[in-house]
Every structure is written in C-alpha cells, then in structure tokens.
Amino acid sequence: MDTNLDRLLIIHREKLLESLGKTENEINEDVNIILEWFKTQKHLPEPLSRHAIARWLVLTKFSIERTKQLCDMYYTSRSLFRDVYDCCDIEQPEQKLCIEKVFYYIPLPKQTRDFYRVDVVAFQDFEYENYNPYRMLAQVHMIYELAMHKDFEAGDIVIIDFKHIRKSYVLKTTPTSLKVLNIFLEKIWASRVKGIHFINVPTYAETLIKIARTILKKKLLNRLYVHSNIENLYEYLPREILPKDFGGDEKSLAELNELWKSELEKNSERLKHLQKLTVNNSLRTEPLINSDYLGYYGNFKKLDVD
C-alpha cells in the first residue's frame, strides 16, 4: 500500500545493493546473524526490524560488529541523553511548536544518482524565546525513528540553511550540544556524510561552523562547503531533488514539513513507547565498547566542556 512515508522517502534498494556488490540473500544472512545475536543480549529490550538492521549494515560497509554496536547504542543512548529523549514527544506543546514554527529537518524525497539522501536543516522565520538545541535534535531523532524502518541509502548529504537563524539561537547552542549532535551522527544514526553544505550564513553564525570544525573528524572537515550563493549549490546537487525554497522542483520545505508532522502524529504512541525502552546494564555480559566520547558504560561526564 502506498503511504505518505513511501512518497516522502523514495528508495532504490535493489540498485543500491547491486552497486555495492551485495545480493538480498547475502544481506539477509547478515541480518539473521544480528537477530541471533540479539537473543543473547538480555540487557536489550527488543530486536530492531530486519529493514533497519539491513540499512545499518549498508551504512557500516557490512560490518556485523559495528552494526551490533549500533543496535546496543540505539537503546543505551536513551538513558544517557535524557535532554534529547525527554523531548521526543510531538504531543508536548513546546515540541509541537518547534516543528510547526521554529525548525525544519527534512529528508528530501528523491535520492541522488548514487543513492545518497539529501537532508535539509533550516530555521523558520519565527522568534522562539525558549530556544533549546536539544529540542531541535529531538525533532531530528523522531523523524529518524520513522525513517530508519523505511529508508535505504548509501549515506547522507546535508544542507544547512541559516537564513532565519536568530543570534539568540547561536548563543544558546553550546559546544556540548554540538558534541551530542556529533555522537548521534556517528554512534546512533550511523550517518555516512558525503558533504555538509552551508547556505545563507550570517556573520554571527560563523561561530557555529568554527566550533563544528573542532569537533568533527578530519575526513568530514574536508567535506564542509560554505556557499556564498544558492547557484553554487547546483554544482553539487541537481535542482530536481531540491525544494522550491532553493530553486528546485521538489515540494517546498513547508509542504514537506506538514507531511512529516502528520507522520509523527500518526506514530506518536509508538514514539512515546520507544523512549521507554532502555537497557538493563545489570544483565549486560560485556562492557559497552570504550570510545573517545563515552568511555565504558557511557561515561557522559567527558562532554561537560561548556
């Protein structure tokens, strides 16, 4: 059955797997291995969908161990980042206001020719006195919660439009909140970012880009592009993919935002249920993989750098 989500996220699963030299049978075998592993992980609340696991396998270049880590962090993160997850409820008045009037996070419907998803991050023309970067991150994550069971992409290309960002928003976006965003990108969403394109950047927002450069991995630093005009963006992305706001052929950001809001509202009970699914560390058989960000069992204190 055709649904809004089918139209919001057009995928080419068979062609993508073919381009990566994988067959459905091969990826299904890997998914089965992950699902069998889930049965041995008593600390995890429930297995993920076959589609979500297959998608993570693609994004990790078919690394079974890395995919296991993502499955673990997907649930472990819920107790680590309550500032984000406590906002993952579209029925909260403040969160609903953010989606309706403050912030856009839009995965554009059409993929690039090499099967990358283009994601637009933008601010609406609205002065929000209670701006909280974690609410913005929660909005992204709620959409991700739906997309991970539908989308199937080689990676992401991100467009960040600062046209309507307020100076007060910049001042409230701390280095810690940007580090949390980076953890979500790498450790929870498994984003393979091909490029980040900044447009309409006012002088006072350049600070955010400078901070980001101190946090991002070196490989990604070489994939940051700041465009002085929208025409430069067309050298990287075709107009048929881009929204009308950027001179493209796709629906406007406002139209796409309404469709995503509708999907979030239809799935609000499921989203609230997901936020309650945390790990039981007393049943964990092995420590969480140590990392520069989290340490054993997710020592979040290392992020307190403000």
UniProtKB/TrEMBL annotation:
Signal peptide: none annotated. Residues 134-254 form the CRAL-TRIO domain. One of its GO terms (molecular function) is phosphatidylinositol bisphosphate binding. It comes from the Eukaryota. Transmembrane segments: none annotated. Pfam families: CRAL_TRIO. One of its GO terms (cellular component) is membrane. This is CRAL-TRIO domain-containing protein. It comes from Phyllotreta striolata (Striped flea beetle).
